[in-house]
Amino acid sequence: MSHLKQGSAWTAALAATVFAVSAAQAAKPIVYPAKGQNAQQQQKDDGQCYAWAKSNTGIDPAAAASAPPPASGPAVGGGERARGAVRGAAVGGIVDGGDGARTGAAVGVVAGGARARQNQRAEQASAQSQSQGSMDTYYRAYGACMEGRGYTIK
After folding, report:
1. Which residues contact 69 (CB under 8 A, 6 or more apart)?
2. Could you tell me the pLDDT band of residue 17, with boundaries at 50, 70 and 90?
3. pLDDT value, residue 134
4. Model-level pTM?
5. CB atoms within 10 A of CB 43
C-alpha cells in the first residue's frame, strides 16, 4: 500500500512542476515602447495585435482565462474501484476461500480508488499543459506583432 502512496505523491509533484514550468513559459510578455510611442498609440497597437494574434492562432486569451478549471473532487474511477474489487476478490478467494475473497475485494477497492485518483491527476496535468501551450502560442504571435510595430518584447 505504501508503494501506491509513493507513486501518487510522485505523480502529484510531477503535475505541480509541469504546471509551474508551463505557467512561467506562457506568461504575458512585457511590452516597452522602444520608438517613443505614447500610451494612446501603445493601447491602439495592443488592441490590434490582440485581434491579429487571436485570429491567426485561433486562441482567445480572455476565453482561456475564464475557462472553468478541470474537475476535481472524488475520483469515481471509471470502473477502477470495481475492477480492483473483482481482482482482489478473485485472488483472495483462491488463496483463502470466502473470507479471503471479502478481504481481497476490500483491498481491491482501495487500490482501484488510488489508481483512479492517479489517472485523474494525470488527465488534469495534461489538460493544463495543453492550455498553457496554447497561451504560449498566442503570446508568441502577439509579441511578433508588437515587435513589428516597434516595441521591445521581454
Report:
1. none
2. very low
3. 82
4. 0.49
5. 11
Distance CA 88, CA 81 (A): 10
Query: What are the residue boundaries of the structural domains of the chain, listed by start?
Result: 2-153
Tell me the longest C-alpha to C-alpha distance in the chain.
Answer: 83
User: Cα(103)–Cα(8) distance, rounded to whole angstroms?
Assistant: 23
Helix, strand and coil content of the chain, in percent to the nearest 5, comes to: 80, 5, 20
CA distance 15 to 9: 10
Q: How far is the CA of 152 from the CAs of 18, 89, 147, in angstroms?
A: 28, 65, 6
Helix (H, G, I), strand (E, B) or coil at 32: strand
The C-alpha atoms of residue 83 and residue 117 are separated, in whole angstroms, by 14
Residue type, 122: A
d(CA 122, CA 153): 34
Residue 6, C-alpha cell as written in the block: 509513493
Give the number of other CB atoms < 10 A from CB of residue 13. Answer: 10
